[in-house]
Amino acid sequence: MRRYWLVFSQAVTVLLAAWFVVATLKPEWVGRGAAIDRATGVSLIQAPPAPTGETPAGSLRSAAQRASAAVVSINTSKAAERNPHADDPWFRFFFGDRGMQPQAGLGSGVIISPEGYVLTNNHVVEGADEIEVILNDTRSARAKVIGTDPESDLAVLRIALDRLPVITLGNADNLQIGDRVLAIGNPFGVGQTVTSGIVSALGRNKLGINTFENFIQTDAAINPGNSGGALVDANGQLMGINTAIYSRSGGNMGIGFAIPVSTAKMVLESILRDGVVRRGWIGVEPADLSPELMETFGVKARRGVLITGVLQNGPAAQAGVRPGDVVVDVAGKGIGNVQELLANVAALKPGEPAAFKVQRRAQSLDLQVTPGLRPKPAAPQQR
Fold this sequence. Notes:
Largest sheet: 7 strands, antiparallel
Number of strands: 23
Strand content: 25-35%
Number of domains: 3
Number of helices: 9
Structural class: alpha+beta
Radius of gyration: 31 Å
CATH superfamily of the largest domain: Trypsin-like serine proteases
């Protein structure tokens, strides 16, 4: 028995010595990942290679890969405006014969159908004479503007290419603050870039960016050139169209805004169906409730939007709405501020009656208002 124990102990000693020599000279043979840096002689610990195709824990690689192919770069050009004094010899004598250079723009877009429809921001393509769409696989094509909606800052383009990658539309109503998101676009023209962050806030409005505002706020980096690009969730599904940033320097400061995919889908369907976005309108001047206004109009309501003016013979006037009324509900949806009233009325179909709940002093009224077609916004004056 003693002899067997002696043989065993000697064998273990030899094996340990062999393992030590191999671990020192050939660490990759034992999977420790230690290697000797030839320049410094320092032993470095390296992780063993991950199995091929395995996604590291916490990686958003799959979401980026699913969505990136459908995000495009958009280059626009606009012919330079000719100076009205260019033919004046005195002007040319003092200022020279200056050739005006065409203006170039840069943005991003998202392919949302195999037929070649692309969603982007209106401000990306507004006034452009030529629009070029460049895919992530380097293919490019001239784009045609199918329709625009300046009030939501969205535009629909179309390109004529086959085998187009298409993004999957998600449901932004399921987003919660703290959810992880990716912003994909072409910032500063450096090429497609993916940045990550979380949903910082929902339902942002009163920012003065668009007429209709219901933004998703995120801290995922959004920079100039990202406009019109995709905001996607951890599954690579489209949650919004990146549209604006808050910045004092012109670059990202961690506050970016995206138009929810529900709004983008509504605009897309309306443009494809009617050529324009048809929104409801009732002809009132609304104001958020304040102690001063409540005292002036004798308002008893504690929630809703005060109507301070009603257009004569407009849809609201014909339905019996009066100045001093407080709208508390539109088509079954509660109203808390002017933006909510504007958005809910705009969502109504022109010509179809809708139920309004109105508080008139201490009296609650149920009215049927038939909205008209919202007038087009006035074009900005040239200066």
